[in-house]
Write a structure and sequence with these properties.
By secondary structure, the chain is an alpha/beta fold. About 20% of the residues lie in helices and about 25% in strands.
Length: about 750
């Protein structure tokens, strides 16, 4: 019988040999020019360096010089002895969630163990309500495997319809309702589209996309036609989803929205997500502001999209201070595509085209030719098939939908399209799943392209598509389409509040419609990639759900404060955030407090809390009648004897200083300690060129958790500053070794 020591030695040797001989995939970067003439191809050369020909997986020639191979550690080490081998590394594992955003936001496997509790388990009790175009319940993103029973607080239901069985709801998708009366009345008492469904079923795709972004379950091997492959998941994967269909083919009606918000509050949602909005209006005329005030008063966090009217100044929507207003930024992921011109230049753009490529034969380029004055925009009916057939058409971005331009080109016989930005969209690139080979390029590139087509006697191009690229720098960048401040309803409240991922976002999709949304698009896909503040809004809705799970005692204002004061304003190159519109530096009128950072928001240190009574004092400070205010707060009467002398006195986590005819503006803020006891914070001020800022006291000492402290900020406009529409910016930060609680400050001298 063998001794125990010999067994131990044998086991050790076995494990050692297993470790040294276990094979892995490696990527090997090679000095391309070192290939001996004796080898016909690089593939042959690479194969000769391996012990087994079958070990070679891929040969890279364009995007990367080298190869990948399945090797054990000894083989990998032996390769490094060659001077032609520049680098060798293990095949990296990417955990791609929605499919990139949770990782980009720091929602990795370590996120969620907070103050001893399991955040995933805690978020089972959080219900996120989404007001949108309905839901496709069969989506894998609503899988309820291993989810516990529905929280007892839930009072909602799953409505049935001719195409929607109430049994389609489960422990993940716990509610689905439809609100169409306002729409039907506006449509003459019926439905204007054969495809329209009165049930909660989503025949548009938008609602399924937003709801799965907020709280979709994890779905492995997800992609959009091969793009953005990975595991698709929402922000709060363990939270529950309830959908409220309020948007129809002609839009979303205020009557339906208010009815849905009313019902959602009674149903027991914790978060409301609204990726919709309109122009600016007084709060008493804004149905979303009115409905969300009631939600806030009952502890429901409301997140709304800022709008897609950027980069136009003062275009931000959903600006009520009790609403989280969300702008959009880019991810560190891109979908590169190129147009190789006949003059040897290569133009860089983006695309999600997934069909058969164009090959390598150059095709003639045409731009703005024919009798139509709108052929440059590729509007329906504007292209002459005799001119564009068999060619690549250059289309200016704007007026009609981007994907419609591609369909117009295809229907006219064109074989490809390059969509070129104009000044309105600047350098922002949004990828689309066009029906024909198509590339989108920025304004500067578009100007070069247009000039080439006009000046060259035989302009040609070849379109090339390169799939998905990660770790793009710089990111995030503020999306050009993201609506901007200042806030025209109440300039003393800085909007938007934050930005979140909103460009090229992958999430669940409806099987009732193709990815472009065009009727002629017969493709069907479980996931789609979309862009807009519609996409950034549910990111924040899901994150708010996580914070609600971690801190159930926090008010909606406290959750909002945590997300705002911990947001970052430096990109992944450690440079200030930039604006995609013109690549200039961004500012708080574009990005608000910055880009959300959920890891830090879990433990913000201090929060700026706001009670319902304080919001009423804010409303009283506006030029509203008592009846106007009552319409918002839904009380028999209001007492405005304690109104603020200035709307900016609201205890908001950011500052927007409107001097008007004054030189001095003074605000007092109150912060609540949600960090450790015996915490001390010191203030740091970053001023603006034309404004002096002083803060008293300069130090805040908290003995206990929950303790509140006040400070006063005095802003003094320097003499000689011209009263123009100019804006300047600064910041006020309270910090200690554990926390930085940052508030942006915007300065203006006149109302917009």
């Amino acid at each position: 019988m063998a001794s125990s020591s010999s067994i131990t030695i044998t086991t050790f040797l076995f494990l050692f040999l297993l470790h040294t001989t276990a094979k892995k995939t490696y990527i090997i970067r090679v000095k391309h020019s070192d290939k001996p003439e004796s080898f016909l191809t690089h593939h042959d050369w690479y194969t000769s360096q391996l012990q087994s020909q079958s070990s070679l997986l891929y040969t890279y020639t364009t995007s990367f010089h080298g190869f990948s191979a399945y090797l054990d550690s000894n083989e990998a080490d032996s390769l490094l002895s060659s001077n032609s081998i520049l680098d060798i590394f293990e095949d990296p594992l990417y955990t791609l969630h929605t499919t990139r955003t949770p990782e980009f936001l720091g929602l990795n496997s370590e996120f969620g163990v907070y103050t001893g509790q399991d955040l995933a388990s805690a978020s089972n009790g959080v219900i996120i309500g989404v007001l949108d175009t309905g839901v496709w319940p069969e989506s894998k993103s609503f899988d309820d495997t291993d989810m516990p029973e529905i929280p007892s607080k839930w009072k909602g239901e799953c409505e049935s319809g001719s195409d929607f069985d109430s049994k389609l709801c489960n422990k993940k998708l716990i509610g689905a309702r439809s609100f169409s009366k306002g729409f039907q009345m506006a449509s003459g008492g019926g439905f204007s589209s054969k495809r329209e469904s009165v049930s909660p079923r989503d025949v548009d795709g938008h609602g399924t996309h937003t709801s799965t972004t907020a709280a979709g379950s994890a779905v492995g091997n997800a992609s959009f036609l091969g793009y953005a492959a990975g595991t698709a998941r929402g922000m709060a994967t363990h939270a529950r989803v309830a959908t409220y269909k309020v948007c129809w083919s002609s839009g979303c009606f205020g009557s339906d929205i208010l009815a849905a918000m009313d019902r959602a509050i009674l149903d027991g949602v914790d978060v409301l997500s609204l990726s919709l909005g309109g122009g600016s209006a007084p709060y008493y005329r804004d149905t979303i502001a009115i409905g969300s005030f009631s939600a806030m008063e009952r502890g429901v966090f409301v997140s709304c999209s800022a709008g897609n009217s950027g980069p136009t100044r003062a275009s931000v929507a959903n600006v009520a201070p009790w609403v989280m207003t969300v702008g959009a930024g880019t991810l560190d992921r891109d979908f590169p595509a190129f147009a190789n011109l006949g003059n040897g230049k290569r133009l860089t753009g983006v695309s999600l085209y997934s069909g058969v490529g164009m090959g390598t034969k150059p095709l003639e380029l045409v731009y703005n030719k024919g009798n139509s004055s709108s052929s440059n925009l590729c509007l329906p009916g504007s292209l002459d098939s005799g001119i564009v057939r068999g060619k690549i058409v250059v289309c200016d971005r704007g007026v009609n939908a981007r994907v419609e331009k591609g369909a117009v080109v295809r229907d006219a016989g064109g074989l490809g399209m390059i969509m070129a930005n104009t000044a309105a969209s600047g350098e922002e690139l949004v990828a689309d799943s066009h029906l024909l080979p198509a590339v989108a390029v920025g304004k500067k590139t578009g100007d070069l392209l247009r000039e080439y087509v006009k000046s060259d006697s035989n302009p040609t191009a070849v379109l090339v598509f390169k799939g998905t690229v990660l770790d793009v720098k710089p990111s995030p960048v503020v999306a050009a389409f993201s609506s901007r401040g200042p806030n025209t309803v109440t300039p003393e409240i800085l909007k938007p509040d934050v930005i979140g991922p909103g460009v090229n976002i992958l999430a669940g999709w409806s099987d009732a419609i193709g990815p472009t949304g065009l009727e002629k698009d017969s493709r069907r896909t479980q996931f789609n990639i979309m862009s807009g503040t519609s996409m950034s809004c549910p990111h924040i809705s899901g994150l708010a759900g996580l914070l609600k799970a971690a801190h159930p005692e926090w008010s909606p204002s406290a959750i909002k404060s945590a997300l705002m004061t911990t947001a970052y304003v430096l990109d992944n190159t450690n440079a200030p955030l930039h604006d995609a519109a013109d690549n200039s530096l961004s500012n708080p009128h574009a990005h608000g407090s910055g880009h959300v950072d959920p890891q830090k928001a879990l433990s913000p240190g201090l929060v700026y809390d706001i009670s319902t009574e304080e919001y009423i004092r804010f409303l009283c400070s506006l030029d509203y009648t008592v009846d106007h205010i009552v319409a918002i707060v839904k009380r028999p009467s209001v007492n405005c004897s304690k109104k603020f002398s200035d709307p900016g006195q609201l205890n908001y986590p950011s500052f927007s200083v409107l001097f008007g005819g004054k030189r001095v503006v003074r605000y007092t803020r109150e912060v609540t300690n949600v960090g450790a006891e015996n915490s001390v914070y010191k203030v740091t001020v970053n001023g603006a060129p034309s404004v002096a800022i002083s803060v008293k006291p300069s130090k805040l000492a908290f003995r206990s958790v929950g303790e509140k402290k006040r400070y006063t900020v005095t802003f003094v406009s320097k003499k000689g500053v011209s009263m123009t529409n100019k804006a300047e910016f600064g910041s006020i930060t309270w910090s200690n070794p554990q926390h930085e609680v940052r508030s942006p400050v915007a300065f203006s001298w006149n109302r917009f």
